[in-house]
Amino acid sequence: MSHRTTITLDDEAFKHLNAVAGNNRSAYISQLLKQEYNKSLKNALLKANEEEARDTDYQKELEAWDNTLPDGLDP
Questions:
Q1: Which of 24, 48, 59, 74 has the fewest CB atoms lying closer than 10 Å?
Q2: pTM of the model
Q3: Has residue 71 been placed in a domain?
């Protein structure tokens, strides 16, 4: 699904967009937004992982659950 929108760019940004996007400015802008979204998601996951690593109570809980992983499995 695609949506139409109107944006306002200053002259310099518009010239740059025309120079790099060719005939398909929409696809270029969409690609840039997807890249930014992926970068934001990656940063959010990294931050969550760092917070998780600092949480000693959570780490102790993980250790307790790790002991249950091989339950019922033959060595």
A1: 74
A2: 0.69
A3: no
